[in-house]
Amino acid sequence: MTKINWAGFAKKNPKERLSQIKPLLSKESHHILENHVLLKQEIASQMVENTLGTFALPFSVVPEIEVNHKDYTVPFVTEEPSVIAACSFASKIIKRSGGFKAIVHNRQMIGQIALYEIKDTHSAIKAIEKHKKELLAIANSAHPSIVKRGGGASDIKTNLIEDETPLLVVHILIDTKEAMGANIVNTMTEALKPYLEALTNGKSLMAILSNYATEALVTANCAIDYRFLNRDKVKAKELAEKMVLASNFAKKDPYRASTHNKGIFNGIDAVCIATGNDWRAIEAGAHAYASRNGRYEGLTTWRLDEANKQLLGEITLPLPLATKGGSIGLNPSVLVAFDVLGNPDAKTLASIVASVGLAQNFAALRALVTEGIQEGHMKLHARSLALLAGSLPDEVAFVVDLLLKEKHMNLSTAEKILEKYRNNILE
Ligand code: NDP
Predict the structure, then answer these.
(1) Bridging pattern class, strands 59-67 and 70-77
(2) CA 20 to 30 Å from 124, out of 82, 143, 252, 351?
(3) According to its UniProt record, which reaction does this protein catalyse (predicted)?
(4) Are 183 and 109 in contact (CB under 8 A)?
């Protein structure tokens, strides 16, 4: 395994960082980063409609996230300051305590075919059960290549929704291997429509995958020794207790849970975007999962292990991530992201991403129950204002320092500070 010396990485400039992580990269990835090769206009305009150009975002890495005893360098694409620093800080502490342990419980997608105007739903359900094998064969013959890859449709279930117009919903479970599987699932469910209509004597309303991927759940855990939370034993224990309280707060109050989970997605979305994954699908599924108990709840749980003097963290969420398909092969930056990660398979990627979510949550809760996040955020806000005011890289630190001393920070103050600086009339 390639070992990188990460010392001073955060303090270097992008060129220096690139040379530091060079041993991790293939020649092609290094060329892409060194020469700022981006998604080509011709490709972009084939991907979606009405294209005018492409849109750039910062591409960063979080070093050394240890998952199941292996270190990963994790690519992040985000415009939000402090997300990467927070994840790096958390994963460093967690690595000292043995890293993350992650389990992929299953990796199947669910397709739904909703049927209505069925006269006898009881007989319809029986007919579906009786013809299960045949229905699975029809689904698999609609997308034979996924069967050749060792995947395909494996089970069929039914769910009757009693309503003014009852709906009989047929769920089909499909192993989509390395793909997220939206198109694979949709092709199979569409193919089943006419057969199910005939079998049930009903009409089909729609056929599409469900993003509530409850058959693609992933759990990541960590156990952090109190001693890594603070050098002072009393303060360390107090912090661990506050983390537990913060976790309970997010379980009981949806107003808090929403912000708690947003912090988790700061990291998860950043990796999904970097790896060309459909982050809307991942968010939709996870938010539905957060509501599975009839109330929107925080996705993580923190508790104490008093005997071993450890703070235990856990996250479980649906993560049907892909390493193939969709736009993954089209964007050169995505190629670099996979290269940096060591080209994991879909299940390993899901383990890494769940761990990122837990790390991000640890950092956010720790900051919230100690110094709060505003102090750090004001610095970052000052930085954004300095940049917006037009500061050059070597002027930014100076403008930020003075802005932080101002009572009211805004763009016009930043512009005035910069102007004074440039005119050398600062006292
Ligand atoms: P694709 O339609 O691209 O299908 C996967 C492709 O990957 C297939 O062409 C398959 O080839 C290829 N492939 C190569 N190796 C493998 C492997 N080992 N395992 C699996 N497939 C492999 O992608 P998806 O079906 O995953 O659909 C994802 C796209 O659908 C995303 O762009 C998403 O945004 C979009 N989408 C999402 C919806 C949602 O609700 N979430 C709804 C509609 C679209 P082969 O055919 O030879 O097997």
Answers:
(1) antiparallel
(2) 143
(3) (R)-mevalonate + 2 NAD(+) + CoA = (3S)-3-hydroxy-3-methylglutaryl-CoA + 2 NADH + 2 H(+)
(4) no
What's the CA gap between 32 and 333, in Å, rounded? 8
C-alpha 279: how far from its chain's center?
A: 7
* Beta-bridge mates of residue 73: none
Q: Is 87 in the pocket of ligand 1 (CB under 6 A)?
A: no
Among positive and negative, which fits the CA dihedral 142, 143, 144, 150?
negative
Mean pLDDT of all residues in the chain? Answer: 95
- Looking from the CA of 167 toward its CB, the CA atoms found within 13 Å total 11
Say which range, 44-53, 78-87, 113-122, 406-415, has the weakest mean pLDDT: 406-415
Question: Which of 278, 334, 338 for a ligand 1 pocket mutation test, highest count of atoms within 8 Å of Cβ?
Answer: 278
Residue whose token pair is 């500070």: 417
The Cα 204–Cα 192 span in angstroms is: 10
Active site residue 278: yes
Write down the residue that tokens 């991790």 correspond to.
24
Handedness of CA 391, 395, 397, 399 (dihedral sign): negative
Burial bucket for residue 213 (CB in 10 Å: 0-12, 13-18, 19+): buried
**CA 177 to ligand 1: nearest atom:** 19
Q: How far apart are CA 101 and CA 109, in angstroms?
A: 23
Report the pLDDT value the prediction gives residue 377, as an integer from 0 to 100.
Answer: 72
